[in-house]
Design goal:
With about 325 residues, this protein is of the alpha/beta class. Helix content is about 25%, strand content about 20%.
């Protein structure tokens, strides 16, 4: 009997099969949601996917550090722009286009007669994505406002719901929900490793570390775990800019302290040491046993791959 896939495995399989993926978060995305979106957009693009990332609400403060230029503010960029020409009275002989000084000129040569401005019109084609990934949103009502403005936009499309909230409504085709994780960014690490090995550079690592640090309040929150510290150490090894993250999340808009009164912030190595762990060139080591800790590749509850739901299923 074939073993049932975990929700993480189902999510990875849907991602591998998809061609154009839409990433969305909440109406007012958190630092973790935006960081997860920025990291996943880079990875999916490098894996050869067409990716559209949308945030129509206000950007959180981590946006000042992350590269958000590929994150759209509306849906117009993921639809074809269609120019229509009425040819019922004039037959077309030739059609070509030219690019002149930043303009695309469509040149139409008729057999006889000519076209007028009234013969031309424009429209938008269907949305191009075939998979939706919602990051860190527990309820359908809290998904980015694009859903309210386009209630049928997700109809008939697989939707992966990645979240840490215990109250998650499980509204997706696949619901990869882990309340034990510190953040969506922590959850994404194993997904990214399953999609494409060796693609986490300093940009991706910075985004993932930013999400973890924000969700754990700089590793001081009760949701800080040995796993979140281990992943944080891995991101540091991959080139994550920890100090820039600290400045963006925790020190902006604060009055400067006197040098002699500034509190000393703990490094990740010091925080690991409190957990009985040690950061080495080959990974995070248990100080007592000397064992190199490895992150579990499988997470989440099992769910049948045939049990699908969509936010607005077609009748």
């Amino acid at each position: 009997m074939q073993q049932e896939l975990t929700t993480k495995q189902q999510a990875v399989e849907l991602i591998k099969q998809a061609n154009h993926i839409l990433l969305v978060a909440g109406k007012q995305p958190s630092n973790d949601q935006l960081s997860a979106m920025a990291a996943l957009e880079i990875i999916l693009a490098r894996a050869g996917k067409q990716v559209s990332a949308i945030v129509t609400g206000e950007m959180p403060k981590i946006g000042s550090l992350l590269d958000t230029k590929r994150i759209s503010r509306d849906l117009s960029g993921i639809r074809d722009f269609i120019i229509r020409l009425d040819t019922s009275k004039v037959e077309v002989d030739k059609l070509r286009y030219e690019v002149n000084e930043g303009n695309i000129e469509v040149v139409i040569s008729p057999f006889a007669g000519n076209f007028s401005a009234q013969d031309a019109s424009f429209d938008y084609g269907a949305y191009k994505f075939d998979l939706v990934i919602v990051l860190g949103v527990s309820q359908i009502a809290k998904i980015d406002a694009i859903l309210e403005k386009n209630p049928t936009i997700f109809d008939g499309i697989h939707l992966i719901n990645i979240d840490t909230h215990r109250s998650n409504e499980l509204y997706g085709s696949v619901n990869f929900v882990d309340p034990q994780a510190s953040s969506v960014c922590e959850m994404l690490v194993s997904v990214i490793e399953s999609i494409a090995q060796g693609m986490v550079d300093n940009h991706v690592a910075t985004a993932l570390l930013a999400g973890i640090m924000s969700s754990t309040q700089g590793f001081t929150g009760s949701n800080t775990s040995a796993k979140s510290l281990t992943i944080a150490a891995q991101m540091m090894s991959a080139g994550a800019k920890q100090q820039e993250i600290v400045n963006a999340l925790f020190t902006q808009n604060k009055p400067a302290s006197k040098p002699d009164s500034a509190p000393k912030s703990e490094t990740i190595s010091e925080k690991l040491a409190k957990q009985g762990l040690e950061l080495t060139p080959v990974g995070v080591k248990d100080s007592d046993t000397g064992e190199i800790l490895q992150e579990k590749l499988e997470q989440g509850d099992k769910q049948s791959p045939k049990k699908f739901k969509n936010p607005n299923p077609k009748k």
